[in-house]
Each structure stands twice: as C-alpha cells, then as structure tokens.
Design a protein that fits this description.
Strand content: under 5%
Helix content: 55-70%
Number of strands: 0
Low-confidence stretches: 1-22
Structural class: mainly alpha
Shape: elongated
Mean pLDDT: 90
Radius of gyration: 26 Å
C-alpha cells in the first residue's frame, strides 16, 4: 500500500491498465470521434469518452493530450477528471505539458468535493511522479500548501520520482519534525526513495538535537538500499540514545541494514534489557528474522528469564520459544529456579 494513498475503490492508472489487459487500438476516424465525445455537453458521454481514452493505445492518448489538459483546466465533473488523471499517469514523461494543470489540481478543489477531491489530489500526485524530474520544481512549490493531504501526496510523489528529485532534499529534511505525524512519515519515506543524495542530510539529522528528527531520520536511513557503512554507523550510534523512541528506531533501522552478527549480538542482549517495551519489541522483531543469530544468543537469553522486569522475561521466553526445540532444556531448567517467572516460561 502506498504511503499516503487514500482508501477507496479507485484504481491507479497502472492497475486500470492491468484490469484492461490490452490497449484498445483505434483507427483515425475512431480517434477523431473519441476526441469529439470528450468535448460533449452530455456528462455521461464525456465520462465514457474519458474512460475509453484511458484504455486506448498510446498514440491515441498522446493525440488526446492537449484536450486532456484542457479538461483538467475546465471540466468540473469528478469522474471525467479522475479518468483523465489516470491517462496522464499512464503517459508518464510524455505528459510533461500537463504539469501546470496537475499542479493547479493539487492547489485547488476545482471539480471535486470531499473524498472525490482527495482522490484527484492522489491521482494528480501519481501523474506528476510518472512524469519524473520535470515535475520536481512544481512539486517543491506545493510543499507549503495548507492542506495536509495535499502536502502528503506531494511528498509521496517526490519519493516515487526517486534520485531525480534530489533537489527537494533540503525541502524535505525540515519536514521530519513537522507537527503532523503523517507528514513526518511521508518525508522519511520520500527521502529514502531519493536515496544517495539524502544520506548525508539524514545522517546529520540522526545526530542532531531534535529527538523527533533523529527518530524519523533513522527510519529513513533504514529504508535506503543498498545499505552501506554510513547508514550502519548512524544506526549504531543512536542505539543507546537517551530517548527510547530513538533507540527503537535505531534497532529497526539496523534490522534492515545487513549488520554483522558480531555487532548485533551484544546490542541485542543489551536492548532486550531496556526498561521500555518499544525498544525490546524492536529487538524481538529483529531476532525473529535472524534465526541463526537467535540460536547463537540462547545462552544469553536464558538469564533474562529471571529478570526483575517481567516484560524482559516475557520477551526472552518468547525468543527462546522461537529458537525451536533446542531451547527446551534451557526453559525446563529455568522452571526449577526459585527466582524464575513461571508464566512466561
């Protein structure tokens, strides 16, 4: 599920294409008739024509492009507009002339109300991301919009464009501390999507004074592929942060960064003793994905079954259970100890 995508029965352009299986090839006469229907006064005729353009061959869509832009500029019917937006998305870079109309759609509620307007925003953002680098400046100009949903879709679009959107990195970094949790998360995901150009600024944010920025930067760093030493160093450097949310984010990022078992072993055991549950859960999620490491840590997990903190004992027992039958002797031995917590075992 795309971050920022609205719930509902709408299909993206790509999904619509799959549903149709094949493009509809039109002759020149049919294309002319189709373009005429796009300008019909009857809204049902326009809707049908807009959907036929969406399913038509690429040559027909390109021929219709000037008219599709005109429709976005003036047609108030939401269903017509949604089909047009999907056609523009399917055209990709060829739809570059539509950038101003797509930006206008995101800046206004023209031709849509309620959820219909929200879906138009989402589809406009998808179309701009499909156009790619030429749309970056227009998207950057929308990051200051008051409407949170619009800003979220714009950020999502920049992330989907990826490395060609590197000019937006300085705009996105401050959004890691936005008052909206949705915007913070979208910014983190988008920066990861941009990749290499965002690594330095994200590492700097992960080492900064703001705890929220540190957490969101670590979340972003953990998503960047392929991982490298700079990413690993940032995660390791914050694994003992003063803020528990940052410690948990550091562990989650390290889980995705291909860190060696020799490094993860002592960190995992120490973090399993953390008094904050979210940090321990991050370690649990890491270890259940690394069965070899989990088996290796069995001797270190056994003493935690007698931990004063019942949550620590629960997590240690759960992990030993995940280690498989080889852990049974350790669990049985722990039952004999007076100080053991019996329920978790």
């Amino acid at each position: 599920v795309l971050a920022g995508s609205p719930a509902g029965p709408w299909l993206s352009a790509q999904e619509s294409g799959k549903a149709a299986q094949t493009d509809v090839l039109l002759g020149s006469g049919q294309t002319d008739a189709l373009l005429k229907d796009l300008k019909a006064e009857n809204v049902d005729v326009r809707r049908a024509a807009a959907n036929r353009v969406l399913l038509a061959d690429r040559a027909t869509q390109e021929k219709a492009l000037p008219l599709l832009i005109e429709i976005l500029e003036g047609d108030k019917d939401g269903q017509v507009r949604l089909a047009v937006l999907d056609s523009l998305a399917s055209l990709g870079p060829a739809a570059e002339p539509a950038i101003p109309a797509l930006v206008k759609t995101l800046k206004t509620d023209f031709g849509g109300r309620g959820s219909e307007a929200t879906h138009q925003d989402y589809r406009s953002a998808l179309a701009l991301s499909a156009i790619g680098e030429p749309a970056v400046e227009g998207l950057r100009g929308l990051l200051g919009e008051k409407k949170e949903s619009v800003r979220a879709e714009v950020i999502m679009s920049l992330g989907r464009i990826g490395p060609p959107a590197k000019a937006a990195v300085p705009d996105l970094i401050p959004l890691l501390t936005d008052q909206s949790e949705r915007i913070r998360r979208e910014a983190s995901v988008a920066l990861a999507g941009i990749g290499e150009a965002a690594i330095g600024p994200l590492v700097e944010a992960a080492e900064g004074a703001d705890a929220i920025a540190r957490r969101m930067a670590l979340e972003g760093l953990g998503r960047i592929k392929p991982p490298n030493d700079a990413l690993r160093a940032a995660g390791l450097g914050r694994a003992e942060d003063s803020e528990p949310d940052v410690r948990a984010a550091a562990v989650r990022s390290l889980a995705a960064l291909d860190v060696s078992e020799d490094v993860l072993s002592p960190l995992s055991i120490k973090s399993l003793k953390d008094p904050v549950e979210s940090v321990r859960l991050a370690v649990v999620n890491l270890l259940v994905q690394r069965t070899a490491l989990l088996s290796r840590l069995a001797p270190d997990l056994e003493p935690l079954l007698t931990a004063e903190d019942e949550g620590v004992a629960h997590h240690a027992a759960f992990l030993l259970g995940k280690a498989g039958p080889a852990a049974m002797p350790r669990l049985l031995e722990a039952l004999r100890r007076k100080e053991s917590r019996i329920d978790p075992i």
